[in-house]
Every structure is written in structure tokens, then in C-alpha cells.
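Revision sheet: C-alpha cells.
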Amino acid sequence: MTDSQDKSAPETGEEKISEEVTEDDGTMSLTAHLEELRSRIIKSLLSVVIGSCITYFFLDEITNFLMATVGKLYYMQPGEAFFTYLKIDIITGFLIALPVVFFHVWKFFLPALTKSERAVLGIIVPVSVLLFFAGMAFSFFLILPVALKFFMGFGTENLQTMFSFQNYFDFVILFVLPFGFVFELPLIITVLGQIGILTSEFLGKYRRIVFFLSFIIGALVTSPDVFTQVAVAIPVMMLYEAGYLIVKYILKK
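Predicted:
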């Protein structure tokens, strides 16, 4: 009886040490990863639903704010106004829930890091949210008015500008949202540089390829015209360069 107790004691200790190591280095089984991913997706979607419920009560004010650039709009189909309002509500709900969504996104990836690196989560989440909104504000207040003025300039006496409710907001969404994600690029590069996945040498080596791909990204995430593609490509190149400089001169990697 005593021998069995003596044998079980070190095994229990080893199990505890194993659990601690697993907790520190962030190793998880594939099943645990999938379960964690499912849980965070559900929580993120739930936060978007709650955000959409909140923005529903301010939908008229939000719509009027977005329409300020062009003024009066028209809808051509019976269900167009309803579904466009619904789309605006869901997207603004997503923006309200963005801090929660980003928290779960970063929380899913950070367990792969060490315990000291996980503490960075408190900085990454607010910075990523601020960068996302900064990108959207940059696009909405600076780039979008120029783009609309450019496209409206093709109107003539016999060719009048008349924006559809749905088409206008589809254009705004496709024009503004990509900038939010593009502005995350320096943060993503910095995090990958901090954990050793990216180095300044690697970033410098593939700089030209990234600059070329930025125009392809601009073509994929925006409306199919040269102006908006260039409007996305240039910030991508500048933000990539900012990430490169951070990794090289601040992280010194």
C-alpha cells in the first residue's frame, strides 16, 4: 500500500508540471484549438448581434450621416430600402462590437506565445481597434469625397447623376472597410517580428513583391476601377514600410 502511494506521488507531480508547461508554452491539441475557435466565433457573432440591436435605434442618424456627402438618394426596388437599412445596421453593429471581436481574435492566437508575450494583449487590442477606425476615417473623410467628386465629374447635361440607395452604400462599404483592415498591417508585422516569424531582412527582400501585390489586393477588395485600386495600394505600401522600419530600428530584428 505504501509502495503504491509512493509511486503515485511523483506521477501526480509530473502531471502538474506537464500541465504548467502546457499552460506556459500554449500548446493545445487540435481538438482543443477547434473548440476554442468555435467558442470565440460564437462570442464574436453574439457581440455583433448585440451591437446591431444598439445601432438599430440610431439607424436614421447613421444613414443621414453617411448620406451627407451626396445628399438625396433613391431606391428602385420595393425591398431595396429595407435590405440596405439591414446591411447598414449589421455593419455598424460590427463596428460597435469591434473591440470584443478583436479581443477574441487576438486571444485565439496569443496562447501560442509565452506568458510574458500574452501580456501584450492589453496593448494589442486597443491599438488594433484604433488603427481600424483610423483607416476607416482616413478613407471616409479624405479619400471617399475625392473619389465621388471624380466619378460624378463624368456627368453631363444629358447624363445626370442619380445614386441608388443600395448601390451608394455598397460603394461606401467596399471603399471604407478595406482601409480599416489595411491599417492593421504595421501592427501585424510588428507582432510577427516580435515573435520571430518576420525579420527586417525578410521584409526588405520581399518589399517589391508586396508592392506589386498591393495593387492586386486593391483590385480584389474594392470596386473595379483604377482610382480605388491605387487609393488602396498606396496606403498598403506606406504601412508595410512603416512595419518594416519598426521591425528594423525599434525591434532590431
